[in-house]
């Protein structure tokens, strides 16, 4: 049994980020054509596209502001001209900001999280799910966070955006399930990425001691979960919020 995404086209938003890069390489290794979305980091997008080409894969670079519906529509048109329709959407992009208390957090930060978590997902759905409905097949995957279940101090803007996103995905799963489109979320914990490896900050005992597996997860482990949900192996899973965090948070039934 293996994950085979041959002849599938995957759009990854925020593909130049720490998690996005590993997702792109992983899904390309499964045989998919990869659409690498970026907002500002064109150089990293080109570098990543070169890596995928070196693996024997095909990658298309697209630039867009994922909080602007017209940008997403233009992105869709470019993809269709170059690669055809999108089979799998991975909504990974999010706006970064400095975390602080509710009383000190800027209202603009709440707006940015709503726009990049909720509205990005809505705009992507409006752009790409109608085609999936026509084909009666598709995968729509969002990258959420364990923070949505933790609700710790200083997490409020991020948590608010991701919990709003969660509501959209659960409703969307029910609305489009009859067309054999699955809608799921992967919720990473505090994940080790290249940013940690560059400064040797992988080991965080204060965090890991509370994780049942007693370690932080890796970017590759997140990408593996995304690849599974993108594949036919997950054809009967929809509406799921799947923590990939060593058991640090556990959804209850």
From TrEMBL:
Keyword Oxidoreductase among UniProt keywords: yes
Enzyme superclass (EC): oxidoreductase
A Pfam short name: adh_short_C2
User: What keywords are assigned to this protein?
Assistant: Oxidoreductase
Q: Which GO terms describe its molecular function?
A: oxidoreductase activity
Q: May I ask which residue range the UniProt record assigns to the signal sequence?
A: none
Q: Does the keyword Oxidoreductase apply?
A: yes
**Record EC number:** 1.1.1.-
Family membership, please give it: Belongs to the short-chain dehydrogenases/reductases (SDR) family.
| Name of the protein in its database record | SDR family NAD(P)-dependent oxidoreductase
Species, as recorded: Paenibacillus chungangensis
């Amino acid at each position: 049994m293996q994950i085979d995404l041959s002849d599938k086209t995957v759009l990854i938003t925020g593909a130049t980020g720490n998690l996005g890069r590993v997702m792109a390489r992983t899904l390309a290794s499964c045989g998919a054509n990869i659409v690498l979305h970026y907002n500002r980091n064109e150089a990293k997008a080109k570098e990543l596209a070169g890596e995928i080409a070196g693996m024997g894969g095909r990658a298309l670079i697209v630039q867009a502001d994922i909080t602007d519906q017209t940008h997403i529509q233009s992105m869709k048109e470019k993809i269709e001209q170059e690669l055809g329709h999108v089979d799998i959407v991975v909504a990974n992009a999010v706006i970064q900001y400095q975390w602080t208390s509710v009383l000190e957090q800027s209202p603009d930060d709440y707006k940015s999280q709503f726009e990049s978590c909720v509205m990005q997902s809505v705009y992507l759905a409006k752009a790409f799910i109608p085609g999936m409905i026509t084909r009666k097949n598709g995968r729509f995957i969002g990258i959420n966070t364990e923070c949505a279940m933790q609700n710790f101090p200083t997490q409020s803007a991020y948590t608010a955006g991701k919990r709003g996103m969660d509501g959209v995905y659960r409703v969307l799963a029910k609305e489009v399930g009859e067309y054999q489109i699955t809608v799921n979320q992967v919720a990473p914990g505090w994940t080790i990425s290249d940013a940690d490896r560059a400064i040797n900050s992988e080991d965080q005992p204060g965090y890991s001691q509370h994780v049942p597996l007693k370690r932080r997860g890796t970017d590759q482990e997140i990408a593996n979960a995304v690849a599974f949900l993108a594949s036919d192996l997950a054809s009967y899973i929809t509406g799921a919020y799947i923590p990939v965090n060593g058991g640090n948070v556990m959804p209850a039934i």
